[in-house]
Design goal:
The chain is an alpha+beta fold. Helices cover 37% and strands 21% of the residues. The N and C termini lie far apart (135 Å).
């Protein structure tokens, strides 16, 4: 039995052995070929060789690697910036296969600066060399600030003790003036757009401000300037005016619980309804005084005294304690 020899043609497929080829040719009526079958030459290496491209790593890519690595460090604080990049911020200079790094960052309290800077230098150097293959000649770390925003402030209250809140106040008085002024500016803008359209021939009609443009400076200029100055001063006064207090403290001035003025009036009215012979109560709080109108079928003097005593006892825990005025109406 003839020896079999297997080889690979240029397409990479297996070719039958020499003995098998001889038998196949003999079966087809062809003369057998003595000796081993000729080998097909292997593909040349130049078929897949040549310049496959090159890799260029920009300075910005290296900077991003440094910044991301620094952000993952436990001692680094991230700080945003209005213009430009925030912290940490990196700069890189790439020259061939070598790079120089500079990192500017903020450190959280209370990490030691020297040890943290050394650790950051080693961390960013390792990251750049592993991810880019570039050699780091120098890595500088600049600590611009120490972030103490996460430091807990000492408090005089015991754990679990309630903390007083800031007293609620009303909105600034200038808010409504600003809204009216904004509405006026919108109307003025609409009028200006219409005047431009009329002047350009895009809209029909007469100019609304035609006569106004024909006015010349005269006696009206002085009063108009004074009026404008007065309005401006008024707006400044409203802007810095002290905000109105809208709530009252309950059980002292520690600010743990606050009640609105309407709620104080409801408390007084609810207390007055508990008095004998009282059928209806209407109340409201004016500044620091509670006005109650009591409807009763009993003796007015007795009812007035009883209601006053009950309401004052109910409101004595409110700071400041409001005054009480009772009006009795008989059925």
């Amino acid at each position: 039995m003839a020896d079999h020899e297997v080889f690979v043609d240029q397409t990479g497929e297996s070719v039958a052995a020499a003995g098998s080829r001889t038998d196949a040719r003999a079966s087809d009526g062809l003369e057998p070929v003595d000796g081993p079958a000729p080998r097909v030459s292997e593909p040349s290496a130049t078929a897949f060789g040549g310049d496959r491209g090159r890799l260029e790593i920009t300075s910005r890519a290296v900077e991003r690697i440094v910044e991301i690595t620094a952000r993952r460090h436990a001692a680094v604080a991230r700080q945003s910036a209005v213009l430009g990049r925030g912290l940490p911020k990196a700069r890189a200079v790439v020259a061939g296969q070598r790079v120089r790094l500079h990192l500017e960052t903020a450190i959280t309290w209370p990490h030691p600066l020297a040890a943290t800077a050394a650790d950051l230098r080693a961390t960013i150097t390792t990251a750049v060399e592993d991810l880019t293959g570039l050699g780091v000649d120098r890595a500088d770390v600049t600590i611009t600030t120490v972030d103490a925003s996460q430091v807990e402030k000492p408090t005089s209250t015991a754990p679990g003790e309630a903390v007083a809140a800031q007293q609620p106040v009303g909105g600034a008085a200038v808010v409504w003036v600003g809204m009216v002024g904004a509405f006026g500016l919108v109307l003025a803008g609409c009028v200006a757009i219409r005047e431009m359209a009329v002047a350009a021939g895009l809209a029909d009609g007469a100019s609304w401000l035609g006569r106004g443009f024909e006015l010349e400076p005269g006696g009206w200029a002085g009063p108009a300037g004074i009026a404008a100055a007065v309005v401006g001063l008024g707006l400044l006064v409203l802007t810095f005016k002290r905000r109105r207090r809208t709530h009252h403290a309950v059980d002292g001035a520690d600010g743990l619980v606050w009640l609105r003025s309407a709620d104080v009036a409801r408390l007084a009215a609810d207390s007055a309804r508990q008095v004998d012979s009282v059928t209806a109560v209407a109340g409201r709080l004016k500044r620091k005084r509670v006005d109650l109108t009591v409807t009763t079928f009993g003796e007015p003097g007795r009812v007035s005294a009883d209601v006053t005593a009950v309401v004052e006892d109910r409101l004595r825990t409110i700071t400041p304690v409001p005054r009480t005025r009772i009006a009795v109406r008989e059925e």
